[in-house]
Amino acid sequence: MSDSVNHHRTFEVLTAEPVQSRRKPRHWSDEEKAQLVAEALSPGANVSAIARSQGLDPSQLYAWRRKALSSGMATPLTEGSNAPVKFTRFDAKGGSMVEIVVGDIVVRVGGNVDADHLTKILRVVRTA
Fold this sequence. Notes:
By secondary structure, the protein is of the alpha+beta class. The chain has helices at 30-41, 47-53, 58-71, 115-127; strands spanning 97-102, 105-110.
């Protein structure tokens, strides 16, 4: 007989765990999609953070947003985007009054104004 019969052979046994079942896809209503797309189109929105907060893959929200924009169902805020941007040079002085120029609007605030309140005022001015 052959000499190879008497040699030791090594076998490796592979074990595997079963793959966990996929979660069922969630059905999003048109109202939910519209609300999420509107939130994603708001200025300064972080689309990935919005999607993750709802348990949604960011690429799905980007796709919904793209579809809404291409179909004309939604439009990004373009108010003032066609207007020329003007920059104002200013020198900081040790006064108690500050002037902030936004377009053709001047906001004058005192040094004791609350930062959150000033932020709200500037947001309103930008949308006016």
